[in-house]
Every structure is written in C-alpha cells, then in structure tokens.
From TrEMBL, chain B:
SMART domains: Tbf5. The keyword Nucleus applies. Belongs to the TFB5 family. It comes from the Eukaryota. It comes from Aulographum hederae CBS 113979. Component of the 7-subunit TFIIH core complex. Keywords: DNA damage, DNA repair, Nucleus, Transcription, Transcription regulation. This is General transcription and DNA repair factor IIH subunit TFB5. GO terms for biological process: nucleotide-excision repair; transcription initiation at RNA polymerase II promoter. InterPro entries: TFB5-like_sf, TFIIH_TTDA/Tfb5. One of its GO terms (cellular component) is transcription factor TFIIH core complex.
Length: 86, 71
C-alpha cells in the first residue's frame, strides 16, 4: 500500500503549471520557426509542438511585436511584388 | 494569422492528464485546448479549482487502493 501511495505522491508532484500564452494558427512554417527562435532567444519559450505549429511562452509583449514586424515585412514584400507585376 | 491565447499550460503524466480531462468532462469548464498526451491549456482563473479537484480525485484513488487491499 505504501508503495502505491508514494507512487501517487510522486505523480502529483509531477503536475506542472505555467501561466502564459499559447500561440497557434501559423500560416507559414518559416514564420512559426522564426517566432520559436525569437522566443527561445528571449528565454520565454516553455514548450513547442512542431507538428501542430504551436508554442507556449511566458511573456507575449516582445514576441507579439516581433510577429507584427514579421507581418509588416510580408505586407511590404507583397506590395513590392504587386507593384512590379502591375 | 497566428493568435495568442492566455492560460495555464499544465504538463503531467498521461495518466494524470487523463484524470484532468475526466474532471473537465463533468462540467466542461477548465480546458481551453487539449494539446497532446501530456499537455493541456487551462483557463487561468480556473486553475486553482482544478488543482483542488485533481487532489481530491487522487486521494479517492489512494483510498480505494487502501480499502481494497485491507480486505
């Protein structure tokens, strides 16, 4: 019985909770990878799921700004490409 | 477009995670996203309540084990 009890104790301690933000719904693999790298460099990355293109971070501010910059860059690129074509 | 969802990332053994999913199924009030075998995103304000419920479930299980082995 003691073994069983201590087993549950160990299991219970193994439950880990981290407050933060789950970022998902990336259209592009490259964007996902860049954001993961940025979050890792900032030391705010808790875990990532490559197959689902999801990551969990403890802080969102800087990562959010970075994502906006990535998006703006893409829009700029799109404009230029459109200009050339038109 | 990517979006961010605030919450508590709960990481546990698949067995414990299964219990959390079971608790959630009773009222469907804790889980935001079932990510994988060991990870779930839980509502931040509900996390303390979930922890208490999990604790109770685990204690019940221990008691059951004790009862069945004392017979």
């Amino acid at each position: 019985v003691m073994d069983q009890v201590s087993l549950w104790e160990v299991e219970r301690e193994r439950v880990q909770g981290n407050a933060g933000y789950l970022i998902k719904d990336f259209d592009k693999e490259s964007e996902y990878e860049q954001v993961c790298q940025y979050a890792q460099d900032l030391n705010v990355l808790v875990k990532k799921w490559d197959a689902k293109r999801m990551l969990f971070v403890t802080q969102i501010n800087q990562v959010g700004d970075f994502m906006k910059r990535l998006k703006n860059k893409r829009v700029e690129k799109g404009k230029k490409a459109g200009g050339v074509a038109g | 477009m990517p979006r961010a969802q605030r919450g508590v990332l709960v990481r546990a053994d698949p067995s414990i995670k299964a219990i959390i999913v079971k608790i959630d199924a009773e009222r469907n009030d804790f889980i935001i996203e079932d990510i994988d075998d060991e990870c779930i995103l839980v509502k931040e304000d509900k996390y303390p309540e979930l922890k208490v419920k999990l604790e109770q479930k685990l204690q019940d299980t221990v008691k059951k084990v004790e009862d069945s082995s004392s017979e």
